Structure formats: C-alpha cells, structure tokens
Amino acid sequence: MEDPETFTLLDLHMDPTSKAITSSSNSRTLQEELKALNHLHKSLLNLESPVPPPPIPVNPKRSANITKLRESGNGEFRKGKHAEAIKFYTLGLQMALTRPPWEPSGLIRDEVSGLYANRAQAHMAMSNWVEGSVDAEASVEAKKVGNAKAWWRKGKCLMEMGRLEEAKEWVGRGLEMEGNEADLVGLLKDIEGKSGKA
User: Fold this and answer.
1) SS3 content of the chain, % helix, strand, coil (to 5)
2) Contact 195, 164 (CB under 8 A)
3) How confident is the model over 132-180, as pLDDT tens digits?
4) What's 145's DSSP letter?
5) Under DSSP, is residue 51 helix (H, G, I), strand (E, B) or coil?
6) Residue 167's pLDDT is what?
7) Both 35 and 69 in a single domain?
8) Does residue 33 share a domain with residue 87?
9) Are residues 26 and 89 in the same domain?
10) Domain of life of the organism in this record (predicted)?
11) Which of the four pLDDT bands, split at 50, 70 and 90, describes residue 2?
C-alpha cells in the first residue's frame, strides 16, 4: 500500500477525437476507473437529445386526501361547525405543505391558497378576526392573482378590527391585482364610509 503522503504523478492521455482518457500505468484499479469514466462519457454523448428525464408524477393519493380534507371542512362549515371545519382545513394544509420538493410548486400553491382562504372564512364566522386576517394574507402570499376572496377576507378582518387605514390600503392593493372585482369595490366603499364617520 502506498503512503498517503506520497504524490504519484499518473501518466494520463486524452484522445483528441474521442476524448477517451488512457494511461500507460499497469495499475488494475486505475484501468478499471478509467474504463468506467470513459463508458460514462460515451453514454452521455450518445443521448439522442439533452432532455432531462420526465418528472416523477404527483402522488394521486396525497392529492385525493387533501381534496377530501378540504371538502370535509367545507361540509362542516355549511353545518355551522366552524371549529371542526378549521381542524379539517389545518390537516389539509399540513398535508399540502409537506409535499416532496420535486412535486410542482404551482400545485402546492393552489392547494395551500385555497385551504388558507377557507380557514380564514371559518375564523371570520367565529369572529376570530386576527386569525382570519393571518390566514387570508397567507392565502394571498401563496397566490396573489385570481384570489379575490382572500383579498376581500383580509380587508374585512382589518375593517372589523377597526384598522381602517390598513384595510383601505389592503383592499386597494387587491383591486390592483384583481381589477375592479365587485366584492372588493363594495368593501372599499364600506371602509371609506366607516372612515368618514370616525
């Protein structure tokens, strides 16, 4: 065995055409390593196109479970059992947020934004304005455009907490993202009406 402190200069050569690396050394280990390296290089060159392999498909069971939890939460909300609805939405969020990182981020954002928006609505039904505000904002952070309900819910929570200037600013930003969405326009009028009375 060679001393690890000893440097051995290897006689390596690269074929200019094939780019294969060879050595005049008699070391069987070196020859095996070079053979593996040249084989890998050749296999990479023989790829028909430099296209990465297709992504691993999304786990359909996880998607189905998240959908089922959201629907169960919606069912409990319709029955007026808002605390139970919050539990289902929270479980759905935990499952959506722990998806493996190789699954599409767009899918995760859609699931998370919907669940946060629904949970915000359940908190609002219980007059938990702070929790509703936080969830609605989290929904907007996950999906800014095409999420008018979450913009509206955060604005409504701020208004109910008496934070009228913040509510007005928030709804204004929501209108920039969502265009002249009717519910947001109506909420802005309500906020301005309350601001005038204060």
Assistant:
1) 65, 5, 30
2) yes
3) 999 999 999 999 999 999 999 999 999 999 999 999 999 999 999 998 8
4) S
5) coil
6) 94
7) no
8) no
9) no
10) Eukaryota
11) low
pLDDT of res. 195: 78
116: nearest Cα among 144, 91, 138, 94: 138
Q: Print burial letters for 91-106: b (CB count within 10 Å at least 16), e (below 16).
A: bbbebbeebeeebeee
* Residue 21 structural domain: 12-45
Per-residue pLDDT at 180? 86
- Stated pTM of the model: 0.71
Cα separation, 152 vs 2, in Å, equals: 73
Tokens of 145: 């455009």
Same domain, 32 and 87: no
- Could you give the count of Cα atoms lying within 13 Å of 190 in the half-sphere of its Cβ? 17
- What's the CATH number where 160 sits? 1.25.40.10
For residues 142 and 175, is the Cβ–Cβ distance under 8 A?
no
| Cβ-proximal residues to 50 (8 Å cutoff; 6+ apart), any chain | none
What CA–CA distance (Å, rounded) separates 92 from 95? 5
